Write a sequence for this structure.
C-alpha cells in the first residue's frame, strides 16, 4: 500500500497524480476507479472549527524548516484523501456502466468528458455545520480563467465526449494532449488524430482576453504549412468555450536548437517569413487588406519539427519588448521586432560540429 492510500476505501484504486498545498487551500489531482478528479479544500474563514480547516496547514507552518514543511504537506495530502474517502457518496461520479445511476447523470458526466480522462473538479465545504459537496467554480474564478460564450461563429466545435485525454503528463499547465474519439470527424479532424488542447483554465483571470484572441485569430487564418494547425473549439456542458484544439507537433523549440547547416537556416528563414506574410496579408470579406498580428512573435514560439520545418505557434498575443508601449502590443510593427530577433538567432547558429544537438521533444 502506498503512503497516500492509508485508510482509503478500495485503496488500490486511488492513484495520486499531483498535489498542490498552500496555507489557505489544497488541491489533490487523483484518479479513482479510472476517473480523474481535482479535489479541492479551501480554508473556511467564517467557521474556524470545521473538517476542511482541520486538514489544511496550520498558520505556524510557515515557520517550519523545509524538511518539516515537506512532511506537513504530505500529511495534508493524506488527510485530505481520507476526508474525501469517508464521504464518497457526496462527490463520487457513477461509473460509465453504472446500473443504478440515472440516464441524465450518465449523460452529464459523459458530455463533460469525465469518462474520457477530463478531470472532474470537486470541493467539500462545511455549510451550516454540515459537510457538503459544493461547486468549486467560485474558488477557481477568483483568480483563474473561466469558460467564455462562443463568440466565434462558423468554427468547428468539439464536446468533451468526442475527445480522449492521453494518459501522460500535461505539456504545460492547462495544456493537454488529446485525440479525437472514433465518432469525432469534425472540420477535417479524423478519429485518432493527436491534438493539443489549450484550456482557458491555464490563464489568470486578467488574461482571458489572450485566450479569446488566440481562438479568434487561429479561427480566421486560412491554414498554412508553417503555422500551427487549428482544429476547433472545445465546449463544456453548457456550450461555453473552455479550450481550443491545435495540431500536435513533434519537434524542438528554436531556442533549444544549438546548431544548423546553412541550408537549414535559410530554409527556416524562408518558412518563418512565409508564415508572417500569410498572417500580415489577410484580406477582409470585401477584399481589402486586413492584416492580422502574430502577437507573440519570439524565438520560443517557433518549433522545428521532426521533419525539419519551422512552424510558428501561440497566437495569444501580449508579448512586449523593451521600448514597446502597451498600446503597441499585438501589432504588425511589434511582430517585426520579433522577426528581427528570430532571424538574428538563426544567423548566429553554429554549423554542425560546433554545438551540441538537442533531440526532439
Amino acid at each position: 500500500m502506498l503512503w497516500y492510500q492509508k485508510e482509503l476505501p478500495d485503496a488500490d484504486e486511488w492513484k495520486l497524480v499531483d498535489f498542490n498545498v498552500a496555507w489557505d487551500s489544497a488541491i489533490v489531482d487523483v484518479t479513482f476507479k479510472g476517473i480523474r478528479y481535482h479535489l479541492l479544500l479551501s480554508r473556511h474563514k467564517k467557521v474556524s472549527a470545521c473538517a476542511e480547516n482541520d486538514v489544511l496547514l496550520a498558520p505556524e507552518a510557515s515557520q517550519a524548516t523545509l524538511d518539516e514543511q515537506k512532511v506537513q504537506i504530505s500529511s495534508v495530502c493524506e488527510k485530505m484523501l481520507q476526508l474525501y474517502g469517508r464521504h464518497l457518496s457526496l462527490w463520487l461520479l457513477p461509473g460509465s456502466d453504472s446500473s443504478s445511476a440515472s440516464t441524465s447523470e450518465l449523460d452529464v458526466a459523459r458530455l463533460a468528458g469525465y469518462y474520457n480522462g477530463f478531470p472532474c473538479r470537486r470541493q467539500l465545504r462545511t455549510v451550516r455545520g454540515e459537510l457538503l459537496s459544493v461547486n468549486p467554480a467560485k474558488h477557481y474564478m477568483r483568480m483563474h480563467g473561466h469558460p467564455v460564450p462562443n463568440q466565434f461563429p462558423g468554427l468547428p466545435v468539439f464536446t468533451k465526449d468526442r475527445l480522449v485525454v492521453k494518459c501522460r503528463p500535461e505539456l504545460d499547465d492547462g495544456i493537454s494532449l488529446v485525440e479525437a474519439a472514433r465518432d469525432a470527424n469534425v472540420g477535417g479532424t479524423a478519429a485518432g488524430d493527436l491534438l493539443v488542447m489549450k484550456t482557458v483554465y491555464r490563464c489568470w483571470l486578467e488574461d482571458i482576453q489572450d485566450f479569446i484572441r488566440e481562438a479568434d485569430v487561429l479561427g480566421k487564418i486560412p491554414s498554412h504549412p508553417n503555422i500551427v494547425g487549428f482544429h476547433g473549439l472545445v465546449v463544456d456542458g453548457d456550450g461555453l468555450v473552455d479550450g481550443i484544439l491545435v495540431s500536435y507537433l513533434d519537434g524542438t523549440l528554436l531556442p533549444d536548437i544549438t546548431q544548423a547547416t546553412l541550408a537549414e537556416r535559410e530554409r527556416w528563414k524562408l518558412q518563418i517569413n512565409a508564415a508572417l506574410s500569410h498572417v500580415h496579408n489577410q484580406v477582409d470579406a470585401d477584399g481589402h487588406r486586413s492584416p492580422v498580428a502574430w502577437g507573440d512573435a519570439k524565438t520560443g514560439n517557433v518549433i522545428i519539427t521532426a521533419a525539419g520545418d519551422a512552424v510558428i505557434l501561440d497566437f495569444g498575443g501580449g508579448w512586449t519588448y523593451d521600448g514597446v508601449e502597451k498600446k503597441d502590443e499585438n501589432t504588425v510593427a511589434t511582430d517585426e521586432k520579433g522577426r528581427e530577433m528570430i532571424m538574428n538567432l538563426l544567423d548566429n547558429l553554429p554549423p554542425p560540429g560546433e554545438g551540441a544537438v538537442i533531440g526532439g521533444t
Remarks:
- The radius of gyration is 24 Å.
